[in-house]
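User: Hi! Is it possible to get a structure for several chains at once, not just one? Here's what I have:
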Amino acid sequence: MDKRASDGAALIRQAAADVLREVGLHAATTRAVTDRAGVGRGLLNHYFRWPELRALAWEAIFAEVEGPEAAPDEALEAWLATAFAPEARTYWRLWLEATDLAASDPAMAAALTRVQGRMLARLTADLAAVPERCPDPKATALRLTALQDGLAGLLLAGTTDLTPEMAEAHLRRAFALELG
Amino acid sequence: MDKRASDGAALIRQAAADVLREVGLHAATTRAVTDRAGVGRGLLNHYFRWPELRALAWEAIFAEVEGPEAAPDEALEAWLATAFAPEARTYWRLWLEATDLAASDPAMAAALTRVQGRMLARLTADLAAVPERCPDPKATALRLTALQDGLAGLLLAGTTDLTPEMAEAHLRRAFALELG
DNA sequence: GACAGAATTGAGCGCTTGCTCAATCTTGTG
DNA sequence: CACAAGATTGAGCAAGCGCTCAATTCTGTC
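Assistant: Yes, the chains can be modeled jointly so their relative placement is included. Here is the combined structure:
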C-alpha cells in the first residue's frame, strides 16, 4: 500500500530535472541522470526514452515557475521585475536551448508549444486587465515576450555590454511605449 | 604562379559554409564538410580545428549578408522588409544556434560578438540618420534587434501560429512606436 | 630525371552517446 | 516457505564524433 520511499521512475524524473537545471539541455546525458538518481543505467530505459524524459523534465521545470497568480496590476510589475532577475538565468538558457532543439525533437517542440502558450495567455490576460491602456493585449503580449526572449539571448551570448539591469530597463521602456 | 584551381583550404572553407547553410551548426560534422569538398578526411585537420573552422564559416556566411550600404531612409525600410523574408530563415537558424554555442565555444562567441556588433552599429547609424524621430538610436537599435531575434525564435520553434508576415507586422508596429 | 618539401589520403584510435538484454534482486501473495 | 511478477542492474553493442599519423601523391627546382 504505502509506496516505496524511492520509486524508480519518480527518482529519475526528479534527477533529470536537476541535471537539466545544472548543465542545460545540450550537455545533459542519460548517464548523468542515472548517476544523479543513484540508480542503474538500465532503469532509465526501462521507463523512458531519452527524448521524452528530457522534454518531460524540461516542462516540469517551467511548470514550477508558472506559480500562483497575483493581482492583475501587480502581475505586470512582477513580470517586469523578475524577467531578468539573476535567478532567471537558468531559465533563459533552458528556453533558448529548447527553441533550438524543437526543430529536431518533436517531444521538445510539443512541450515548448504548451509552455509558450500558457505564458503568452497569462501575459495577455494580465494586459487585458488594463484595456484602456492596451487596446490589443494579444499582440502586445507577443511583442513583449519576443523582446524578452531576444534580450535574454543577447545576455546569454554575453557578446554585447548589456547588463541584466539594462535589459530590464529596455523591457520597461518598450512596455511604456506599448501601453502609451 | 597561377594558383591551383582547387586550393584545399579554400575548398574546405567553402564546403563548410555550404554545409552550415544546409544542416545548421549542430548537425554539421567534419565528415560532411570533407565529403562535400571532395577531399580526404585528414586534410581538414591539417589546416583547421573543427571549432575554428565552424566559427570561420559561420562568420563568412553573415559577412556576405551584410552586403552594400543603401540610402539611409531606404536602409530602414529594407531592413524591415527583409527581416522575415523566406530566404532569411537559414540565417535565423544559424543565429539561434550560434547564440547557443557561444556559451561553450569561445571561437563562436568571438565571431558572434563581431557580427552582432557590426549589425547593431549599422542599424544604429541608420536610425541616427533620422534624429528628429529617434532621440536614442543606440537603445532603439538594441530593442529592435532583440525584438527581431525574439520573433525569429518564435517562428523557428513553429510553436505559435505566428507567420512571417505577422512577424514583420509586429516589427513594423514596434518600429512605429519607437519612432513616435 | 632526380629530389626535397608540401599537399593529401584513409584506416583507425579513443571517446561519448542512447540503448539492449540476460541475469539478479525485491516484493507481495497464497 | 514457495513462487510468479515486477523492479533493477551493468556489461556491452552499434553508431557517431573529432582527430592522429604513417604512407602516398603531387609539384616546383636544379
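Chain B touches chain A at residues 24, 26-27, 93, 96-100, 102-104, 109, 112-113, 116-117, 120, 139, 142-143, 145-151, 153-154, 156-160, 162, 170, 173-174, 177-178 (CB under 8 Å). Residues 81 and 90 of chain B are 16 Å apart (CA to CA).

User: Great, thank you!
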